[in-house]
Write a structure and sequence with these properties.
With about 100 residues, the protein is α+β, with helices and mostly antiparallel strands. Helices cover about 35% and strands about 30% of the residues.
Length: about 100
């Protein structure tokens, strides 16, 4: 799986919008998991009171952890109609979005 890519997407919503965006995100997850080349795809949030070594993202941020079989699979994912619809639905609720595309070291 040397072509596999990892994606860490840090999504920050406008204040108070995270729950709404996560609801829309989670409704889209089954369609994403069904895509060719999708290995892992899910949203994560801070663990409350995880201790002094934690650097929390905060109450308006969630992090999407993804694994894809290849850059081609990730590209197809980005262009998929359900992702275009999700993006259009949520764009006005987002304050920031950072996408990190990584490979095995």
């Amino acid at each position: 799986m040397s072509d596999m890519v990892h994606v860490i997407a840090v999504i920050t919503t406008n204040p108070g919008q995270r729950a709404t965006v996560l609801e829309m995100f989670n409704a889209n997850v089954p369609a994403v998991l069904a895509e060719d080349g999708c290995i892992e795809y899910g949203a994560t949030v801070d663990v409350p009171n995880a201790g002094p070594f934690q650097t929390p993202y905060g109450e308006d941020t969630f992090v999407v952890v993804e694994k894809w079989a290849s850059m081609a699979a990730l590209g197809a994912h980005a262009a998929a109609p359900h992702m275009q619809a999700y993006g259009a639905q949520t764009k006005d609720m987002l304050a920031d979005r950072k996408i990190h595309i990584m490979q095995n070291a």
